[in-house]
Amino acid sequence: xREVLPELVRRWEAGETIGMGTVVATFRSxxxxxxxxxxxxxxxxxxxxxxxxxxxxxxxxxxxEVVGSGTPVLQRYGVSDDDAFAVGLTCGGILDxxxxxxxxxxxxxxxxxxxxxxRGEPVAVATVVEHPDPSRVGLxxxxxxxxxxxxxxxxxxxxxxxxxxxxxxxxLGSPRIDDAVQDDALGLLASGHSATLSxxxxxxxxxxxxxxxxxAFAPAPRMLxxxxxxxxxxxxxxxxxxxxxxxxxxxxxxxxxxxxFPDADEVVVEWPHRYLEAExxxxxxxxxxxxxxxxxxxxxxxxxxxxxxxxxxxxxxxAMGSRRTHEDxxxxxxxxxxxxxxxxxxxxxxxxDLGARTPEETAVSIAAELIAQRWGGSGEPLAATSGRIHHxxxxxxxxxxGDVAGTGAYGG
Length: 412
Known about the structure:
By secondary structure, the chain is α/β, with parallel strands linked by helices. It has three domains: 1-107, no CATH class; 110-151 and 162-219, no CATH class; 222-375, 3-Layer(aba) Sandwich (Rossmann fold). It has helices at 5-13, 56-69, 110-118, 175-191, 230-241, 272-281, 298-308, 323-335, 340-343, 359-375, and strands spanning 18-27, 37-40, 46-48, 73-78, 94-102, 123-130, 140-149, 164-168, 195-199, 210-217, 222-226, 245-250, 266-269, 290-293, 316-319, 346-347. The strands form three sheets. A six-stranded parallel beta sheet has the order 13-12-11-14-15-16, with helices on both faces. A five-stranded antiparallel beta sheet has the order 3-2-1-5-4, with helices on both faces. Strand 11, helix 5 and strand 12 (245-250) form a beta-alpha-beta unit. Helix 6 (272-281) runs parallel beside helix 7 (298-308). Residues 391-412 are annotated as: Disordered.
């Protein structure tokens, strides 16, 4: 939903009813992840995508029907066994798309949700997309781990919902359901993932029949780029493109300037190890944070890596340098008292072997490594592999921004 949210909120605030189709589950090689959305306005305009073009026409028609009837529909799209050119996915995947009418009446909390996202506050939207009792389908609750979610001047709350406090904004049918969905939604928020949850009709953990889709809108994960060099500018650009909140940090004020790093969200002048420790103490480091160390200067790198490799909450720590630089760095880290296990967390030389030479190519290499670790990819050419193209996250996977996933490799 995030990519279509500005248009959705604009039309919602204008009092319109919009048809919205959202991918709530995928199977095999589906082209878009859960959470991808498409809007159809009352003027016939379409925004967003659920499949990259495969079933957009069918979803467009269904969205108009749903607005007319007022009844949401959960529709499955896949390749037709009888006719491969029928409405479906030529890639061989399967999508479950939930299509619903969105208005101030059906989604009164949307303004407050948009305000929370503007402030960078985590919030989840839980919607019942399947239930044996049709009257339960479409029930929605907002889940917040914070004190409260409130509208603001930018989103003035025309639906009149006001603020709502920590927990669910409304019941999804019973205390048992509410407890289960709240616990699971908070877990998805912590990991930054959206997913469809399955329960029994009354929220039974091992049951079937009820499905709840949870959009988890967590603040953008962080990419900390240490070393204000030309490679850092390219890595910052790539990180921003992938949806990270990018910070460039260097102790040298002559190099660490906003004019040299226009794609970074912030540029900090500070000794890298001091900055990292301060951010950790302030609670701004989590399991989605990735660290790239690009200075390949021992006086900066070694104190920083001592800190980073002893922070198990970091998703990734990579350092640039030649093989000789890596061997020297590893020796210094051992002398500083780091264990083999701690040093084993370091990706060095940073990135996948793409033969990268330029800063831009190296940034792609770094992004490729992050994507491969996120989804368990081999890094081999797809033409040389067989089986599924799209992977599920593996153990220890790097959480990735938004619903589009991924960051990659580094040369060096």
